[in-house]
């Protein structure tokens, strides 16, 4: 969802059935994690759940990468992983986890879809930042209009007998800002050559920070293992195995097997999957206004994602080498191919 994703070319041909399977996994699994979170936090404290989840998944990714020959990370890599893990996982994902105690999972997924809006704004405001092209400003406006329809002044009345907790709905808005900040930071921070190892490091750092926040919130004192329900346990295990491990693996595979623009289409599909699953499985509200807001937000995201590059603060055209376009993981894949 960054830069000129549509300019990246697929590095090599990949079996069509593998690509289709990876897209299906990415669309369904990452879209379904919102519902899994909702069930997980019913009997497991949110920050404790997030901490244990990412420590387990991070340990598996880190250990697997090292066993496959990845070099040991440096202190600079760990410092960058700590900052990125705190912003992305504790700030971004933590806001989602906490808010789903009070807000429908599908609605949270639609709110989180505005991440590209904040990324454009923060990338523009940074020193020497990139000035967005006109289409991006239209996308920003559309995204804000859709967000207003979701959690604006009239949203409470539209949710019928279960009024919308607007304050809780604003938490993932703030979390989306932290996720965008972490994404911008990760583009310029020192990164390990292995995308899998770097992600494992971020999960380990974020998971450890989650546990610190959990202790500060006194969650361990209130938590009882015997109180965990089967739906909560199933949701937690789903998040660790499918959401963190299988979903990420599918995403990394697609970054190497197709264009980054195609891989980024999960940003359009995941909210729709989350809303449908929340409505069909958990009985969450799905109103016509939510459908209109979703269409507006996703249209804005599409304009931002597919827009041509803008200019820097010095009004110079941004022209990056092909391997520096798209996501950091895609760049790392290109660098390893050329080595």
Per-chain topology:
Elements: H1 16-40, H2 46-67, H3 75-99, H4 105-112, H5 115-125, E1 130-131, H6 134-151, H7 155-158, H8 166-188, H9 195-216, H10 219-222, H11 230-257, H12 260-263, H13 266-282, H14 288-306, E2 311-312, H15 328-338
Antiparallel strand pairs: 1-2
Helix pairs in contact: 1-4, 1-11, 1-13, 2-9, 2-11, 3-8, 3-9, 4-8, 4-13, 5-8, 6-14, 13-14
Descriptive account of the structure:
The chain is mostly helical. The protein is 71% helix and 1% strand. The chain has helices spanning 16-40, 46-67, 75-99, 105-112, 115-125, 134-151, 155-158, 166-188, 195-216, 219-222, 230-257, 260-263, 266-282, 288-306, 328-338, and strands at 130-131, 311-312. 50% of the residues are buried.
């Amino acid at each position: 969802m960054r830069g000129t994703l549509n300019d990246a070319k697929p590095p090599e041909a990949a079996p069509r059935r593998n690509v289709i399977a990876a897209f299906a996994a990415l669309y369904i699994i990452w879209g379904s994690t919102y519902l899994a979170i909702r069930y997980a936090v019913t009997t497991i404290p949110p920050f404790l759940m997030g901490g244990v989840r990412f420590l387990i998944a991070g340990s598996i990714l880190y250990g697997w990468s090292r066993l496959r020959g990845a070099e040991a990370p440096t202190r600079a890599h760990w410092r960058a992983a700590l900052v990125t893990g705190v912003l992305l996982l504790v700030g971004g994902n933590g806001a989602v986890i906490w808010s789903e105690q009070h807000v429908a999972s599908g609605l949270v997924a639609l709110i989180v879809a505005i991440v590209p809006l904040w990324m454009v704004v923060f990338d523009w405001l940074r020193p020497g930042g990139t000035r967005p092209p006109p289409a991006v400003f239209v996308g920003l406006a559309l995204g804000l209009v859709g967000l207003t329809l979701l959690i604006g002044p009239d949203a409470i009345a539209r949710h019928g007998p279960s009024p919308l907790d607007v304050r809780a709905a604003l938490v993932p808005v703030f979390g989306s800002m932290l996720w965008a900040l972490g994404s911008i930071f990760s583009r310029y921070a020192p990164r390990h050559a292995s995308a899998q190892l770097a992600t494992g490091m971020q999960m380990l750092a974020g998971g450890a920070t989650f546990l610190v926040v959990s202790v500060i919130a006194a969650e361990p004192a209130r938590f009882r293992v015997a109180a965990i329900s089967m739906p909560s346990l199933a949701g937690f295990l789903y998040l660790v195995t499918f959401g963190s491990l299988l979903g990420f693996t599918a995403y990394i595979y697609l970054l190497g097997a197709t264009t980054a623009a195609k891989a980024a289409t999960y940003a359009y599909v995941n909210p729709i999957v989350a809303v449908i699953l929340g409505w069909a499985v958990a009985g969450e509200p799905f109103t016509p206004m939510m459908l209109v807001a979703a269409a507006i937000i996703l249209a804005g995201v599409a304009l931002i994602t597919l827009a041509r590059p803008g200019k820097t603060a010095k009004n110079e055209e941004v022209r990056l080498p092909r391997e520096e376009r798209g996501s950091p993981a895609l760049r790392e894949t290109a660098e390893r191919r050329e080595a």
